[in-house]
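Q: Structure tokens for this one, please.
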Amino acid sequence: MSLHVRSTIQLQQGILYGPVLSRRLGRSLGLNILPDEIKVCSMNCGYCQYSWTGILATQPALYAGFLPSRDHVRVALEAGLGRLMEEGTPPDTLTFSGNGEATLHPEFSGIAEDVVALRDLYAPACRTAILSNSTTVDRPEIRAALELLDDPILKLDTAVEGTFRRLNGPARDVSLAAILRGLRAMGSRAILQCMFVNGRVDNTTPEEVSALVEAVRAIGPNHVQIYTLDRGPADLDLCPVPTERLEAIASAIREGAETDARVFL
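A: Here is the predicted structure, written as tokens:
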């Protein structure tokens, strides 16, 4: 794998984007239920392809006025999915992603219900997924919504508190302990996604991998997805990890946590 990465990308415009070709999800129709104008997230990850977070928060009062409504999301998806089916180009996956953390939307649970219903109506062979940073997974209502989706892909880049703070830059009221608690409650319904980087922060050391293996063992997820930088990070002092190291980490998880781990390049 080349250690060259591209630059960061612009924020998505509109509720739907793509379909885009995804390393993990095939032809993925993106669902951006966050603002066009600014990134809203409960983390400020140094590796984010959308650059730094504009509104770092977990309280809807700080960003609700920027969000599309549940009705707007439903209408946009019904129109877009219907068009793709008429064209004979159905997506492989409907994926909550886009300009931040989708589960921060105060109507996320209802939107997830609508997405599943529209998928069942228009494209029953299509899967539903989310790329989430796990910061709300300790909330029972969010877990219930995530469990409606075929592939709830939930971030866990490190099980070490200091690294979590330096790499993921969480909002003040976000804790690693709550994330781990929520992921354990999800158990085998969770798919973990782990981003590995070198440079200013290094979460590939033996100590880091050992802590992650123990966390994965306690969670018992469906499987673990391992990857590194592909697009440019917000923090230019972060670098991608060589394939050989990613494969070694995957092997450590398979052996130490008795959980399937897959490297995506």
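A few notes: The first strand starts at residue 16 and ends at 22. The chain has one domain: 16-263.
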